[in-house]
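Hi team,

As requested, here is the filled-out complex form for the fe (iii) ion run. I kept the field names the same as last time so the parser does not choke. Let me know if anything looks off before we queue the next batch.

— J.
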Amino acid sequence: MWLAKGTLTYIDLHTHSTASDGTLSPRELVQCAARSSLSALALTDHDTTAGLAEAADEARVLGIDFIPGIEISCAYPRPGTMHLLGYGIDPNSPILSRTLGDLVQARYERNRQIIKTLNAQGIAITDEHVARIAGRGVVGRPHIAAALIELGVVKTSAQAFSQYLGQGGSAYADKERLTAREAIDLIHSAGGIVSLAHPVQLRKQNRAQLREEIKTLADLGLDAVEVLHSDHPEHVVDMLEGWAERFGLLKTGGSDFHGSNKPHITIGFAQRLRVPEAYLSAIREHLSKLARSD
Ligand code: AMP
Ligand code: ZN
Ligand code: FE
Ligand code: FE
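And here is what came back:
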């Protein structure tokens, strides 16, 4: 793509498709990125690489730079959640495929547990209904929330989470997860680099604790921190940027676009901020160094 000298282009390194809990297909997602004039896009579906081939194919057609990615939910104490993003992974890595298969199975069992609990509470939700909503994608709680909306049990997804599906909700169930160390090693063995997604969602009590957690993860091999994200106000962005530099971590950023499942999020935007292409150049440089040292 030709761009006038000095023209700034933007990217998005955190998005979801129908392969997990987004509402656009991988192809539609890439088309959406192109319409929004993004120069590069990473697809980071939860626990699956199933959408990557289709997205890569469409990106080739439209001339967008595509980075194969993933987002893995890790074991972490309540009320926080820890998600690790992988970039530059080989979607066909046997160890990755095997482990993701296990994670999807653990989700399946968790979802059945949630549905059983909802049934015991008198809500006539079925596995089939939720599966129909999820289509071919990995089934997540947002799909159960959508079923609860269709049944008229709740009005919004947020209400479904606060009343039933979230931590503290009456049908909450957890699933087996990888530890941070296991997820970092897994992404590395699939040839990728690892970024800590939306660090604010760790729900640390203060800055010092958050900084310590990032340092601990860096010691385990974390490569990057998601600095820009739809949940990060500017003062958080500044703080994370400072720590990334301090700990020698790369910076990543993205919207966490989920289509109409999270209508307040726009592709290519992290609140009012945009993700610069320079983030990707640094990631690529790091990935090619890793490839050379193999
Ligand atoms: P799961 O991976 O099935 O555990 O579901 C996680 C998904 O649910 C992620 O996309 C979250 O962003 C979404 N989620 C978590 N909490 C809430 C909430 N309170 N309201 C709406 N979506 C949520
Ligand atoms: Zn999601
Ligand atoms: Fe996440
Ligand atoms: Fe995400």
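Two things worth flagging: Residues 10-93+191-293 form a domain with the TIM Barrel fold (CATH 3.20.20.140). Residues 59 and 231 are 27 Å apart (CA to CA).

Thanks,
J.
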